[in-house]
Amino acid sequence: MFMLDHKKIISTAIVASAIFLGTANAGEQAIDGGAVYKVKDGMYTSYAVNTQDKKDFKYGKAPSKTEIAAWDIDVMPDGTGLPEGKGSVERGDELYEAQCGMCHGDFGSGGEGSRSTYPTLSVGSASTETLTNQRNIPDADGPKRVIGTYWPYASTLFWYIQSGMPFTHPKSLSDDDTYALVAYMLSINEIEIDGETLEDEFVLDRAKFLKIKMPNVDGFIPNIDGPEGPANIKKFLNDPNNYGNGTRCMKDCLKGKANIVRIKTEINAFEPPMSVERSMKEETSSAPAHPGKKVYEASCSVCHATDAMGAPDVGNKKAWDATLKKGIDKVYANGMNGINAMPPKGGAMDLTEEQFKAAVDYMIDNSK
Fold first, then answer.
1. What DSSP designation does 339 have?
2. For the chain, what is the domain count?
């Protein structure tokens, strides 16, 4: 991300588009700052375009109103799409502990071990101060981008929880449950609503939700919301002073010596620790590693390292004995084809059958 005036944030993808596409000037500009050309003789500049009329489609069908309603659940910053409902911080705490904490950690502090890839949701503060931090100063912390410090709108939080969470069975939460979880998430991020601290007994409903103002609501530019959003983006990216040195160029852009800023404060708190060893090492263990161990750690441990996901967890002899009553061939088949909340191959579709079975064997061998 790029920091502007040490306060505003714009996307590097948008910046790159503006730099490489913004030099063209052939009429109307695209939303990313590039030029829009006219299709002439079936060609769009050097690219052929299918100009045939498209009337009927052979595949699929028009969705019914019920089908559209089932998926049209996004919530906009102005409250459009936000349903009626209510939920307390206390109820959200219970739901979080039961369905979220195993991945996102206690109080949203982030996952650990095999679940360390799941994002941190809270740093116990709603301050945006760290967003200006750069890792070119010794002992400087990096930006802390969590819900309370970084997200501009709480509507995104409501929509994402209801449509994508919990991980194992998304879209299973009621409107009241979602309100409760949002209330809890805001409380652990120290967000206030209309000056009120969100204690356990606080109940969030639609009316109170519309009063939420996130600390970083004005932290992103340009303003992309509303009907003027596309025009705002075009105007912003048409001015190179917003993201560069003020002059458009494609070659010989640098005058003088480059000022290279080195990282002085590295991010190294990885779980497991990141190896910096580059030489080949001899195997010191007398026993070879299980052939399914790496696949398990990379693709299976997210759900099978804990019983909270509803899957038989590694080391739980009773759970695996019950699973194996169906026979090992059935266990393999269920895993390959998917069963209940588990997608085929656990979602790791690039695994070969041999690799997948090896991971299953590893889990079984470590649960006897």
1. B
2. 3
- Residue 133 sits in a domain whose CATH number is 1.10.760.10
Ranges 30-39, 169-178, 321-330, most confident: 169-178
Cα–Cα nearest to 74, from 154, 163, 152: 163
Domain span at 357: 293-365
Same domain, residue pair 105 and 186:
yes
pTM value is: 0.64
**Higher pLDDT, residue 230 or 23:** 230
Is 198 found in the same domain as 72? Answer: yes
Long-range contacts at 37-46 (CB < 8 A, ≥ 24 apart): none
* H-state helical runs in the chain: 12-21, 65-71, 89-99, 101-104, 147-150, 154-164, 175-188, 206-209, 229-237, 293-295, 301-304, 317-324, 328-337, 353-365
For the stretch 276-292, pLDDT in tens is 666 665 555 556 788 88
Distance of CA 310 to the CA centre of its chain: 23
* Same-domain status, 119 and 203: yes
Burial track 90-105 (b if 16+ CB lie within 10 A, e otherwise): bbbbebbeebbbbbbb
